[in-house]
Amino acid sequence: MRLSIDHQCPQCGAPAVLEETDRLFHCEYCRVKSYLLQRGYFRYMLPHKAPSGARLIYAPYWRMRGMLFGCLEDGVRHRVVDHSRQAVAASFLPRTLGLRSQAMRLAFAGGDEETRFLAPTVTRQGAVDLFEERYGAAFPSPPYEQAFIGETLSMIYAPYYLADGLVDAVLNRPVQADPPDLSEFKTESPRWPIVFVPTLCPNCGWDMDADRDALALPCRRCNSLWRAGSDRLVRMKAAFLPAAETDAVYLPFWRIRADVSGLLLDSVADLVRLANLPRAVQPEWESRPFYFWVPAFKLPPRVFLQIGCFLTGIQSAEAPENGLPEGPGDLYPVKLPVTEAVECLKLMLADLLKPGRTFLPRIPRMEVTPRQAMLVYLPFRNGPHDLTHPRHPVGINKNMLQLGQGI
Ligand SMILES: [Zn+2]
Ligand SMILES: [Zn+2]
Question: What's the rounded Cα separation, in Å, for the pair 36 and 7?
Fold first, then answer.
């Protein structure tokens, strides 16, 4: 379930409710659109009902929502993950937030200098590992490889205060009769401002638009693409393959060059050999670089990997043009960051390398090091039910795109 966050329009102060995946905020009152920037991850806090004068202590919890893919002997399986976990080891606090964060409106974390926020001791990677371990154990057999897709990882702060013991300030109920010694815990001040920037193209001033949860803002006037930096919009490198039809839908993909330890997977010829593809290696394939192709949008797990593996298997010889396509074609929004695309590369290898019985056991020890990534828009024919590749027998059902939005 997605969290709801109370906040105010940065322009006119009107109250608004955001979903946790929202990046573009469109104010209903003043009509101004802004894009949300945050360093690292988003931090929220639960509302409190503490008596006035109570000195609040906020305890951090990692919260993860997404899909865990596991590569098993008999194929790829997935688990839906929606869970929270203490980000500071404190035996007197509940280990998880329970259902509270879902039933309530949250706010962006902040407060005055008096408010104490316990500093997290579990790192972001530590949290991801914990969630992988917990949910990976639920697969029918131990997976060779796991990856989170469509992940939202945020920090949620739960309020407490001291009064004859420790009191949960959400419910105003004591959780611990003996007051715990908090002096051993490090605290920090809430200096995590959310930055709202206007959605105007930094290059030409055009008012850009996108879905509320889009990770990139395209400018259709100067054909540039922008993403959130820590305090401003940053230009992204993008390219596209031109479409033959005018009503094409351009789907975004991450085209990635990566080194794989213990494998020579540098050229298209290397892939044909390692994947045992039924093609005769052409001499020029020895020098044509191999790229992974990963969807930069969300799809149900099986379809996501199928499309990625299919396009990676094709290794199209067409050279993308720089920039964004001109004209009326639809640009499908980018919703999967390159960091998550990179997470999938080993899963894709597990599918591509043949025979599986030789390669699968080696997968856990392989190191995949990304070298270069670029967003490439590929044109698809806009059919009544499917988007289909103009030259290859691959399509994406529109229902699947719709389902992917909810991940
Ligand atoms: Zn407003
Ligand atoms: Zn522009």
Answer: 12
Whose atoms come closest to the Cα of 16: which ligand? 1
What is the whole-number distance in angstroms between the Cα of residue 59 and the centre of ligand 2?
A: 43
Neighbouring residues of the ion ligand 2, judged by CB less than 5 Å: 201, 203-204, 206, 219, 221-222
Shortest-distance ligand to the CA of residue 203: 2
- 10 Cα–ligand 1 center, Å: 7
Domain boundary among 172, 194, 216: 194
Q: Which of 375, 252, 255, 370 is nearest to 322 (CA)?
A: 375
* Residue whose C-alpha is closest to residue 295's, from 389, 199, 201: 389
Are 184 and 245 within one domain? no
Judgement on whether residues 277 and 181 belong to the same structural domain of the protein: no
Say how many Å lie between the CA of residue 283 and the centre of ligand 1: 60
When pLDDT is cut at 50, 70 and 90, the band that residue 2 belongs to is confident
Model confidence over 122-177: pLDDT tens digits?
999 999 999 999 888 989 988 888 888 878 899 999 999 998 889 999 989 888 87
pLDDT in tens, 175-227: 887 878 888 899 998 888 888 999 999 999 999 999 999 999 999 999 999 99
User: What's the Cα-to-Cα distance from 281 to each of 180, 224, 270, 285, rounded to whole Å?
Assistant: 69, 37, 9, 7
pTM above 0.90, yes or no: yes
Which residue in 294, 327, 334, 382 sits closest to 210, CA to CA?
334
Question: Nearest bound ligand to CA 34?
Answer: 1
Residue 336 shares a structural domain with residue 256: yes
Give residue 35 CA to ligand 1 midpoint distance, Å: 13
Ligand nearest to the CA of 224: 2
User: What's the structural domain count of the chain?
Assistant: 2
Q: What SS3 class is residue 177?
A: coil
Residues flanking ion ligand 1, Cβ below 5 Å: 9, 11-12, 14, 27, 29-30
Task: State whether 177 and 259 are in the same domain.
Answer: no
